[in-house]
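Practice problem 4.
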């Protein structure tokens, strides 16, 4: 049995806390919101973000950050990506040298273009930072439906330790040394999922969805490999796997927000209706800046930004994608002359 601290009591933090309790670990879950702490302790269920999933009796829910962090064998950072840096800064004085922090959110900081693990290392240089990612909606993990994910870490020892902490008969965990590739896949897929949702909102069909998923992973992989990620990460669970589930699932907040935008809602109206942080909206500008910095063509990302921030009509964005200059699907494939 290990002692774990989970920072963030949203749907994902709650689902992982339940999973870790099921695995026999001693878990303390922290929330910055006093009302949320009170509700979870009284109801033993997150009625708004993870309804129907009962909290185990042994799960401790608290608003005490220091108590959640100190003395724990590993920490799970599960706050939404816009709050990763600020939460890491608050945690830092309590984190011991070499203490393991596994980040489970997905995003890129627009102002610095840093991934979440890079932000955490900057704020908590004494920590051993890892990531957990893959096609894993909290609603299904909380209901104990079979799910597979990947742990990325700088050392095999840390990756295999965390693998042993999370793995169960309903949660299979693989390991990988490619933290950057894992994070880029998990962050950029949210932007493509917005596009998939917009297409659904416009009334387009499965052909359109398949095209966006396929060409979307091509864009993600082009940028990811140029930045130093490994192609295997983009063809695996943390790339195409995560992209498929986020573009297609009814649980996907990014797809839902895109759907509402496609139906004519403003970006703010869509985010308000989703009622949770829509990570793709925050990552879209960063993705466009990375594409420019590394001189990589990302037309879907470019059009999503125009719809989100420049008022471009979604239907016109689709038209412009369809009528781009014609080209071969894969330039690595050569004709036999």
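Answer key:
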């Amino acid at each position: 049995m290990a002692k774990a601290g989970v920072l963030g009591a949203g749907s994902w933090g709650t689902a992982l806390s339940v999973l870790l309790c099921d695995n026999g670990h001693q878990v303390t879950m922290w929330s910055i919101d006093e009302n949320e702490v009170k509700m979870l302790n009284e109801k033993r269920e997150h009625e708004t973000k993870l309804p129907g999933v009962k909290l185990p009796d042994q799960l401790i829910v608290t608003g005490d950050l220091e108590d959640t962090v100190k003395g724990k064998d590993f920490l799970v950072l599960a706050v939404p990506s816009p709050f990763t840096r600020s939460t890491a800064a608050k945690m830092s004085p309590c984190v011991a040298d070499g203490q393991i922090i596994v980040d489970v959110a997905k995003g890129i900081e627009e102002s610095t273009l840093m991934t979440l693990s890079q932000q955490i290392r900057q704020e908590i240089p004494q920590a051993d930072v890892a990531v957990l990612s893959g096609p894993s909606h909290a609603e299904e993990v909380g209901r104990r439906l079979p799910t597979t994910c990947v742990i990325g870490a700088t050392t095999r020892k840390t990756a295999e330790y965390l693998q042993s902490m999370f793995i169960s008969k309903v949660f299979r965990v693989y390991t990988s040394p490619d933290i950057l590739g894992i994070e880029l896949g998990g962050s950029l897929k949210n932007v493509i999922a917005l596009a998939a949702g917009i297409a659904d909102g416009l009334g387009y069909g499965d052909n359109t969805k398949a095209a966006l998923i396929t060409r979307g992973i091509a864009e993600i992989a082009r940028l990811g490999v140029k930045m130093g990620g490994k192609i295997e990460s983009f063809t695996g669970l943390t790339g195409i796997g995560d992209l498929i589930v986020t573009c297609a699932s009814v649980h996907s907040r990014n797809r839902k927000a895109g759907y509402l935008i496609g139906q004519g809602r403003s970006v703010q109206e869509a985010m308000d209706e989703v009622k949770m942080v829509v990570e793709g909206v925050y990552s879209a500008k960063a993705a466009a800046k990375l594409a420019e910095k590394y001189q990589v063509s990302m037309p879907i990302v470019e059009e999503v930004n125009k719809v989100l921030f420049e008022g471009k009509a979604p239907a016109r964005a689709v038209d412009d994608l369809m009528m781009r200059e014609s080209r071969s699907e894969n330039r690595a494939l050569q004709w036999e002359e």
